[in-house]
Amino acid sequence: MRDRKSWNVPASTFAKNTFNPIRNIVENIQIVPHPDKAMIALSIGDPTVFGNLKPAPEVVEAVVEATRRGSCNGYVSSTGMEAARAAVAKYCSVEGKLELQAKDVVLCSGCSCALDLCITALCSPGQNLLVPRPGFPIYRTLAVGLGVQTKDYNLLPERNWEIDLEMLEASIDDQTAAIVVNNPSNPCGSVYNKEHLTAILEVAARNKVPIIADEIYDHFVFEGQEYHPIASLTEEVPVLSCGGLTKRFLVPGWRMGWITICDRGNVLDREARNGLQSLSQRIIGSNTLVQGALPTILASTPQSFFTDTLAQIQANAELSYSILREVPGLNPIMPQGAMYMMVGVDMAKFPGLKNDLELVERMISEESVFCLPGKCFDYPNYMRIVLTVPETQLREACNRIIAFCSRHHVSAHVNSLAHANGHVNGCEAESFKNVDKAMVVEVKSGSE
Prior knowledge:
By secondary structure, the chain is α/β, with parallel strands linked by helices. It has helices at 13-17, 21-28, 57-69, 82-92, 111-122, 138-145, 165-171, 194-207, 272-280, 288-300, 303-324, 356-367, 391-408, 410-420, 427-445; strands at 40-41, 105-108, 128-133, 149-156, 162-163, 176-182, 211-214, 239-244, 257-262, 330-333, 340-345, 369-370, 372-373, 382-386. The N and C termini lie far apart (69 Å).
């Protein structure tokens, strides 16, 4: 019984169990940039922050027109306006493979809200949710707050971050409520081909486990790659797919996400569909102005806008990959889509740095370049860089990373010791010295 004689206002169990590791790490990183160097943040997954990537004029005008109409200022159904949901259903359908209707769509306040509703609808306290490693930490944040355990399955860097299917299947038990599949991937930038997605679905089908698909980067793939909605490849496995305008349309602050209920076997009709309906009433719907503009946005945004956006990001990916792969101690993995690159760090080559977190902190203080450490994604000895930065700043950031690595690489220690002894020893030191000079010239000159 609570003592009413003195103030005692504890946080709820739900609040105390809710923990966002990426926010916790970032907020505790020692961000003290070099006083003589402007900060270049390769850490922020917001494509609008640098101002070089803007939404299409048609997208902006659609919201302006919805505002002018004056009919989108009030409450609507908690799952969203009929016309907006129908537009999303059409946008997410795949002819001959996945036919969706307005009743299969729940509009949400961003994709994170969509993920929250899906995890809450499918997972009960004591159950477990399978999540990718490395992976976006919000899955764990949302699950653990509910008393749901998360179990990692590994992504394989040597196979362009494909899922370790054996580990995935071995992780399933009688308390597994769902599998989260993120494609295209944050933080890896991987894009799964049809064969790999089919293999994932076979695991889910054999074990009768539904899939929560985080597809916020839908169609956000580089030239030569093809995006396949995972639900379009199965007639058996129920899939709750989470998407939105955030990334592809470059409007994360508009908070427009959605869930599509892809369930040709009608498995989710028994309870889960109604569960999503009930949960949507907790937020009483998403932004109605954007809902009013949604049919126009999804139908009228020109393909040239998407092509131009992707061309800029792919060029940045190729640029940074071509530079960083030549830096001893670093191993970038070329992405296939999304807006990120994971860069492996051979920490043994940087003996003065304890781990990837310290490396990131020191890079901020010495070079004013901010990357996210692999620790944010439960994947040590890596760092994630964002590819939405203007090219000039990206080149400068790569230049500074080269300088930082040159200064802290084992070869720098060898050089220091050798000079102290009156001679230079070790071919590795000479190798880095040559790479360092050549790469700085290359980055400054703007050649690739």
